[in-house]
Amino acid sequence: MTHDGARPSSDGSSPEPPEEVARAVVLRQLSFGPRTRAQLREKVLAKDVPPDVADAVLDRMGEVGLIDDEQFAHDWVRSRHRSKGLSRRALSHELQRKGVDRALVDDALTQLDGDDERAAATALVERRLPSLRGLDERRAANRLVGMLARKGYPPGLSGEVVRQALRSSGPTELAD
Questions:
Q1: Which among 44, 47, 46 has a CA at the least distance from the CA of 56?
Q2: Would you kindly state where each structural domain of the chain is located, as residue ranges?
């Protein structure tokens, strides 16, 4: 890095200004898919761009709509709940790890209500239940509750959904 904060260019010619380095990093990262401001800031700072320059570039990218943590959070909740069946709690943890502000996380999670979570948990259990044929009911229940716990579902809901699924499956589905 030169004394003015510019990085030497890759071909050895005149140094790249830190704004250009930051812009290039952000655009490259966004070409892979949506990212949060915090994720992009971390990548930019890893390239030795001064924090004030990184923040200015990120602010500008937000102004033109390339960075939108609110939209990212809403899309993330919708996608991960549908594809992975994750609970609100698990989605909240994922978004916070990605640096999304707590208020934005809470707002995005309002898309899901208790009925959505119950439906997703039920679908997960119903998909998994056939693979548990031959297990006694207690062992099957433990595996199903464990699966739901790993996806962030609360114990009360998990137990209810599993009990209902096991009752519905009938005694011929699982070993006694």
A1: 44
A2: 1-67, 69-109, 114-169
